Amino acid sequence: MKGWMSVQFDPTLWTDIIFLIGEITIVAVVGIFFFALFLVGLSIYSINTGRVYFPRFLKAGMMLVEGLAKSLFRFFGLEDSEVQTFFISLQNTMNKKSFSDIPITERAVFFPQCLRSSHCPAHLSPEGLKCKSCGDCPIGFWRKVLEQMGYRVFIVPGSSFIKRMVRKYHPRALLGVGCLSEVKEGLEMADKIGVVAMGVVTLKDGCVETLVAWDQVMEVATLGVPPDNIPPEVKELAG
């Protein structure tokens, strides 16, 4: 006991340890900052060129420094909508090959109810709105085309319906249409549950009679489809 009590703690050693921890912390913070700065720079370059560079690296990096990256995007004058659009493009780029490889019979399409006419006669069911193909909006026409191709098509009022249909039918791939925030959230949700997803953003936001570029929807829907199997209606749409 006496020998233990006689051991002296060297205060300079403690000082050196604190100093080393401080140096490591500073280096780590500076490293994270410049890493985030590099990712933001690469993202902005991708936005300006219209081409996503190193998508997997970008996605993994952004997950690590998301908060700091958002602050840097704002510092460089990018609107939240521009950043959201880029991340949707990033996710679509990463998922395009996997989506193309999945048979259409194992894919599902989700349209938002805001695309329908304000005079829509459809009624809400446990699986979303049941389209009557009344002709007041384009959904009825393209729903039939997609279903003939082999897709399951849903017109839903919210993300809870999407989760319910995914649990019920177990599609391996999803094509979701919606406003910026809805598509971004949908892609993130699909990523978490291990389902391949592609998103198409509507041409305008709103709750009633929104619009979508149907050529973009069908361009995604026909990924992986042999040219001879693409419906004539889709070929006409593509011009």
Structure description:
- The chain is of the alpha/beta class and 239 residues long.
- It has 2 domains: 77 residues, no CATH class; 144 residues, no CATH class.
- Helices cover 57% and strands 11% of the residues.
- The protein has a 4-stranded parallel sheet, sandwiched between helices. Strands 2-3 form a two-stranded antiparallel ribbon.
- Helix 2 packs across helix 4, helix 3 packs across helix 5 and helix 5 crosses helix 8.
- The protein starts with a helix and ends with a helix.
- 27% of the residues are buried.
- The mean pLDDT is 87.
Break the fold down into its secondary structure elements and pairings.
Blueprint: H1 2-5, H2 11-49, H3 55-64, H4 66-75, H5 80-101, E1 107-112, E2 124-125, E3 128-129, H6 139-149, E4 152-156, H7 159-169, E5 173-178, H8 180-193, E6 196-201, H9 214-221, H10 232-238
Parallel strand pairs: 1-4, 1-5, 5-6
Antiparallel strand pairs: 2-3
Mean pLDDT: 87
- The strands making up the biggest β-sheet line up spatially as 4-1-5-6
Strand content: 5-15%
What would you report as the Rg, rounded to the nearest angstrom? 25 Å
Kindly state the number of beta strands: 6
* Uncertain residue ranges: none
How many distinct folded domains? 2
User: Helix-strand pattern, N to C?
Assistant: HHHHHEEEHEHEHEHH
Judged by helices, strands and strand pairing, the structural class is: alpha/beta
| Largest sheet data | 4 strands, parallel
The number of helical elements comes to 10
**Percent range of helical residues:** 55-70%
